[in-house]
């Protein structure tokens, strides 16, 4: 009666894990390629607002970043008032002029008219600070600005 | 002496090494946002001359320190702002040759003459929240985009946003030139005249 063999005694063949490294390498290469190392370490809170009428900034080398927002929890000694961050340090409104001029001289002359200032301002900031930044930018003729925003509905800004 | 084979290297730990690297890159990845609302600031002039702008050609949008929206002095919710801005821009109620023939608005004599004349003025207080201000600007820009889309659809059978996207992808020089001309023409029909005043203190 070999027809009624005990099926329990047949073991499943082991799954080969030989291809596991290949799969992991594939993922690894994806993340290596997709990773953009941040140039600046953020010292301020930077939750950008939402907008849907956004234009993409193509050329990364043409962008000057100005961050603004409340200091991070690590920098509580600075205070809770919203601050400006240029490069890697907290700055004053008066420093913007020097920053823009320095950025400008570091770029090739042909590219200088196309420089764009990207304002990366935290949602929870008063417009007074933004107005001050804009006034300083106008003084150094850096007129092209971009309110950097996440893509989303305008109504997302009012969700808690 | 018999030839000895080189011992094979055990590759069992390769997966572990790869995992280690993978986790490092996973953690360090930040998906950068590099898109936003583009604006051009007015140049700083020492002695600004006062321009003569008719009151009916000016659309006053105000944001006070409590983030309340006032349009032409009346309170409004942000959801209604876009349609109000479109109604203002597309009014075309000017007399005779100053009216516009492509506008589909009410032709109200109390509202704007022509999209070329219509100016939106955004005034905010120093205490206004940045996110609110961006939301309002987003609505105003989307009003312009809507009108431009409509005209581009009517004239060329393709929306304005699509045209801009095609310009980026276009390879042929002739195509690019033609697209750029068309975009310029649509932009001239509804020029973006959005003025941002310096924040004021309101008490």
Describe the secondary-structure layout:
The complex is a heterodimer of chains A (160) and B (203).
Chain A (H helix, E strand, L loop, with lengths): L19 H15 L15 E2 L3 E2 L6 E7 L13 E4 L2 E3 L3 H12 L9 E6 L5 H13 L4 E5 L1 E2 L9
Chain B lengths: L13 H15 L6 E6 L17 E6 L5 E3 L2 E2 L2 H12 L29 E6 L5 H27 L3 H10 L3 H17 L4 E3 L7
Parallel strand pairs in B: 2-5, 5-6
Antiparallel strand pairs in B: 2-3, 3-4
Helix pairs in contact in B: 2-3, 4-5
Describe it:
The complex is a heterodimer of chains A (160) and B (203). Chain A has helices at 20-34, 95-106, 127-139, and strands at residues 50-51, 55-56, 63-69, 83-86, 89-91, 116-121, 144-148, 150-151. Chain A is an alpha/beta fold and 160 residues long. Chain B is α/β, with parallel strands linked by helices and 203 residues long. Helix content of chain B is 40%, strand content 13%. Chain B is built from five helices and six strands. Chain B has a five-stranded mixed β-sheet with strand order 4-3-2-5-6, with helices on one face. In chain B, helix 2 packs across helix 3 and helix 4 (160-169) runs antiparallel to helix 5 (173-189). The radius of gyration of chain B is 27 Å and the shape is elongated. The model of chain B has no long low-confidence stretch (mean pLDDT 83). The chains are: A alpha/beta (160), B alpha/beta (203). At the A-B interface, helix 1, strand 1, strand 2, strand 6 and helix 3 of A face helix 1, strand 1 and helix 3 of B.
What key phrases describe this protein's structure?
heterodimer; A: alpha/beta; elongated; B: 203 residues; alpha/beta; 6 strands
- Stretches of chain A where pLDDT is under 50 for at least 5 consecutive residues are none
Strand order of the largest sheet of chain A: 5-4-3-6-7
- The rough form of chain B would be described as elongated
Number of strands of chain A: 8
Instruction: Indicate the multimeric state.
Output: heterodimer
The proportion of strand residues of chain A reads 15-25%
Rg of chain A to the nearest angstrom? 26 Å
SS field, number of helical segments of chain A: 3
Assign a percent range to the helix content of chain A: 25-40%
Strand ordering within the main sheet of chain B = 4-3-2-5-6
Query: Can you summarize the main beta sheet of chain B?
Result: 5 strands, mixed
Distance linking N and C termini of chain B: 100 Å
The beta-strand count of chain B equals 6
Q: So how many helices of chain B?
A: 5
> What is the average per-residue confidence, as pLDDT of chain B, rounded to a whole number?
83
Pairing-aware structural class of the strands and helices of chain A? alpha/beta
What is the element string of chain B, with H for helices and E for strands?
HEEEEHEHHHE
Taking the sheet with the most strands of chain A, its summary is: 5 strands, mixed
| Percent in strands of chain B | 5-15%
Largest interface: A-B, 59 and 51 residues
pLDDT average of chain A, as an integer? Answer: 84
């Amino acid at each position: 009666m070999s027809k009624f063999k005990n099926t329990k005694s047949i073991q499943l063949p082991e799954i080969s894990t030989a291809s596991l490294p290949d799969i992991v390498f594939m993922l690894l290469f994806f993340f290596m390629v997709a990773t953009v190392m941040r140039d600046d370490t953020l010292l301020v809170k930077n939750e950008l607002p939402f907008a849907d009428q956004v234009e993409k900034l193509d050329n990364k080398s043409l962008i000057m970043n100005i961050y603004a927002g409340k200091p991070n929890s690590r920098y509580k000694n600075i205070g809770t008032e919203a601050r400006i961050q240029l490069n890697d340090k907290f700055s004053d409104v008066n420093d913007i002029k020097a920053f823009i001029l320095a950025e400008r001289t570091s770029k090739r002359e042909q590219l200088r008219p196309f420089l764009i200032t990207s304002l990366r301002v935290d949602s929870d900031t008063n417009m007074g600070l933004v107005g001050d930044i804009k006034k300083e930018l106008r003084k150094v003729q850096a007129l092209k600005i971009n309110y950097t925003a996440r893509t989303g509905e305008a109504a997302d800004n009012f969700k808690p | 002496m018999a030839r000895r084979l080189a011992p094979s290297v055990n590759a069992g730990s390769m997966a572990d090494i790869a995992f280690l690297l993978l986790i490092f890159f996973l953690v360090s990845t930040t998906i950068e946002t590099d898109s936003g609302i583009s604006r051009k600031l007015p140049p700083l002039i020492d002695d600004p001359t006062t321009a003569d702008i008719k009151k009916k050609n000016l659309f006053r949008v105000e944001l006070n320190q409590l983030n309340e929206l006032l349009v032409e002095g009346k309170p409004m919710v942000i959801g209604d702002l876009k349609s109000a801005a479109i109604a203002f821009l597309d009014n075309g109620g000017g007399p005779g040759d100053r009216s516009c023939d492509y506008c589909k608005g009410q032709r109200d004599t109390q509202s704007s003459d022509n999209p070329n004349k219509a100016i939106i003025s955004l005034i905010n207080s120093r205490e206004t929240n940045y996110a609110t201000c961006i939301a309002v600007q987003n609505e105003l820009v989307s009003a312009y985009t809507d009108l431009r889309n409509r005209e581009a659809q009517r004239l060329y059978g393709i929306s304005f946003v699509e045209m801009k996207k095609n310009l980026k992808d276009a390879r042929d020089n002739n195509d690019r030139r033609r697209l750029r001309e068309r975009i310029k023409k649509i932009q001239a029909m509804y020029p973006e005249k959005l003025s941002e005043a310096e924040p004021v203190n309101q008490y």
